[in-house]
Automatic annotation (TrEMBL):
Residues 4-63 form the Conserved virulence factor B first S1 domain. Residues 220-275 form the Conserved virulence factor B-like winged helix domain. Belongs to the CvfB family. It holds the Pfam family S1_2. It comes from Patiriisocius marinistellae. It comes from the Bacteria. This is GntR family transcriptional regulator. The lineage of its organism: Bacteria, Pseudomonadati, Bacteroidota, Flavobacteriia, Flavobacteriales.
Amino acid sequence: MINLGVYNTLEILRETEPGLYLGDDEENVVLLPHRYKPEQFEIGDMLEVFVYLDYEERPVATTLTPYVTLNNFGYLHCSDVNQYGAFMDWGVQKQLFVPFKEQARPMKVGNWYIIHLSLDEKTDRLVGSSKTNKFLNNDNVTLEKFDEVDILVTHLTDLGANVIINGIHKGLIFVDEIFEDIRTGDRMKAFIKRVRDDKKIDVVLQAPGYRSIEPNANFILDELKAAGGFLPLHDKSAPDDIKNELGMSKKSFKRAIGTLYKDKQITIKEDGISLLADE
């Protein structure tokens, strides 16, 4: 079966004037236009292609990389709005349609939005939606403290950064846990800090608790070496100075330099920390 909105691995059946015809083991066929065909190929080769609907609503294959795939989220640019809805640039030739009923707020040309891609069951068309909450669910959370997860930053508020976790859950990084520049649309690794009784999920960018000590200690060692063996930071430094210099909280910094000091890798003085001579 050839599926819309995802990558399909298909066999090259024949070459024609419009392009290469690709097929699956159920005799379904789709066209890969000439502009996307590989420089070298043979009939019978297998190709991985993305399949969507062209301007005439026919399945078509491409080797372009879409910015979002079926049942996932992407950060997309709005390139047009007309009387039917908005159209998003999603990395393939035909733009992705977001009808007005699927817009969390009226879209404007030039703005960027978090978009979920789904298949409309009535029309069998791929459609986008900025009403992301309806595609997320925290009812059955199997995540635990310290779990590493993939996040997508959806928007920033006074509380912190709202994120999508592993493409299925909602979470929040509290503002006092953010020690680096993050923006809407950023994708990164993060860690579960807490799953609350009300199913809300707290997320941090550094491994919480004792698990962050070793990575932070190694990071500080690298920074010390890059700086010639000295950093003008110590346990009395202002939290903002530590955050600006190293991108971590003062608590994490003190814990890490305490580890390094006990391991006799650094000295701690009034004006900063230094690598020991044998480092």
